[in-house]
Amino acid sequence: MTERPSWDDYFMTIAEDVATRATCIRRKVGAVLVKDKRILSTGYNGAPTGITHCTPETCLRTIYNVPSGERHELCRGLHAEQNAIIQAAYHGVSIKDAILYVTHQPCSICTKMLINSGIRKFIFKHPYKDKLATDMMEEAGVITVVYRSKDSLS
């Protein structure tokens, strides 16, 4: 019998699978909101429903040469965390006290939304240099965990 993955490994693998649906041309991000070991909602980054996906020719961040981590409003897409929150709201699912599993550390905008949604623990695989986001997480008492799979420790 093969060894079962830990809950963190299981949910982070799902977040990585969710990221494969992303339509952003710069970064593929997936998010999963979990409570009591049950998935409440998922989200990936990309253009809103009914809006044409970005291409290298239409990406505003490429056109205006916007550096990563700056001017988040110059983008047609939603972040994975935003889509996970929106999907939960759309379907009437409370995410208060859930845990966020996300492939990349949330930016400052997503951090504000997640804090006000009642999410108090973020588990992410790839840290992101956003001092404001990190400061807000700390001030709000959000537990942050940089995910490391068992395989990456060997």
What does this structure look like?
The protein is an alpha/beta fold and about 150 residues long. The chain starts with 6 loop residues before the first helix and ends with a helix. The chain has a 5-stranded mixed beta sheet with strand order 2-1-3-4-5. It is globular, with a radius of gyration of 15 Å. Helices cover about 35% and strands about 20% of the residues. The mean pLDDT is about 95. Strand 1 (about 30-35) and strand 2 (about 40-45) form a beta hairpin. Helix 4 (about 110-115) runs parallel beside helix 5. It has helices at about 5-20, 60-65, 80-90, 110-115, 130-140, 150-154; strands at about 30-35, 40-45, 100-105, 120-125, 145. The protein contains 6 helices and 5 strands, in the order H-E-E-H-H-E-H-E-H-E-H.
Brief summary:
33% of the residues lie in helices and 19% in strands. It is α/β, with parallel strands linked by helices and 154 residues long.
Attribute tags:
single chain; 154 residues; alpha/beta; 5-stranded mixed β-sheet; 33% helix
Give the proportion of residues in helices.
25-40%
Write down the overall mean pLDDT: 93
The strand line-up of the biggest sheet is: 2-1-3-4-5
Amount of beta strand: 15-25%
Determine Rg (CA atoms, Å). Answer: 15 Å
| Classification by helices and strands | alpha/beta
Write the layout of secondary structure elements.
Blueprint: H1 7-19, E1 30-35, E2 38-44, H2 60-63, H3 80-90, E3 99-104, H4 108-116, E4 121-126, H5 131-140, E5 143-146, H6 150-153
Parallel strand pairs: 3-4, 4-5
Antiparallel strand pairs: 1-2, 1-3
